[in-house]
Design a protein that fits this description.
Length: 90
């Protein structure tokens, strides 16, 4: 697994994970999380706070983290209760 060495990159990883967990608790879908993460990472990239290598490591790690269903298993252990498909009325 790619690991982060830069303390600032680690803080951004933790912040992004916490935000995604919060979005999940409000019934957002994995694709919503991906959009949020993409926006966060884009803003971070534009700010030039991290060097290019640390930014790339962070992006790869976030991608893997969001795609891994075990990242979102709640206290009841049922992953299906975390990602519901909301029915949209038009």
């Amino acid at each position: 697994m790619t690991s982060l060495d830069n303390p600032l990159a680690i803080r951004h990883f933790q912040s992004l994970c916490d935000a995604c967990q919060e979005l999940t608790s409000r019934e957002h879908t994995p694709s919503d999380l991906r959009l949020y993460a993409d926006g966060y990472l884009h803003a971070l990239r534009r700010s030039d706070l991290l060097d290019r290598q640390e930014q790339e490591k962070l992006e790869k790690l976030i991608e893997r983290w969001i795609l891994d269903p075990s990242s979102f298993i709640g206290p009841d252990g049922d992953i299906n209760s975390l990602f519901f498909q909301k029915e949209v009325e038009w």
